[in-house]
Amino acid sequence: MPKDVILLSDGGLGTTLEDHFHLPISHTPLWSARIILDAPGTLQQAHLAFLEAGSRVLLTATYQAAFESFDRAGYTREIATEAMRNAIHIADQARHQFCREHLDVSPKDIRIALSLGPFGAVLAPMQDFGGIYPPPYGPRAYSDSEENTTSFGDDIEGKNNSIKALTRFHENRLRVFTSDKETWTKSILLRLRRRRW
What we know:
Elements: H1 13-19, H2 34-38, H3 40-52, E1 57-59, H4 67-72, H5 77-101, E2 111-116, H6 156-178, H7 181-184, E3 189-192
C-alpha cells in the first residue's frame, strides 16, 4: 500500500454494538471487550459492517481490556489473556471474510489496530477522560464528595512512581499480545490513548 494513502478507521464500536446490535455493554467493567467472550460472532459482524461502510482499519474491542477489568468482571488471568488475544483473531477473521466477498480488496488493504485505552478506562467510575487515578497511578482516587486532582504538584517522587506504575500497567497489557507471535503479527497498528499530565 502506498505511503500517501489515507485509510478510514472504524469508530464508535461500543455504540454500534449497543445501538445496532442491541448488546447491553455499557456500565460493565469490560464494555465492548465483554463481547469478545459473550458474542464473538456479533463482534465479527460489527467489524464487517464497518468494512462495508468503507473502513480499512479495524479497531480491536480491547479499549477497556486489562487484567484489572477482567478481574473486576470475575474472570481469571488465563481467560483475560485468551479473550484479549481473541479480539485480534476476530478482527482478522472479519478482514478475511470481507476479502473473500470483495475480490478487489486484499487482506493487506485492511489493517487491524490494537486499541488500548488509558489506565483510567479500567477504573470504576471510568476515568479515561478525567484522568483521576488512585495511587500509585495518580495523586488520589476519584471522589464524589471531595475536590479531584490530576496534579502531583511538587511531589516529584509521587509523579515518578506514577510513571513507573503506568508503564508497568501498559507493558503488562502489551505483553499479552507480543508474547504470542500468531496474535501479534495480525495486528499491524497500535492505538494507545493516554491522559495528559
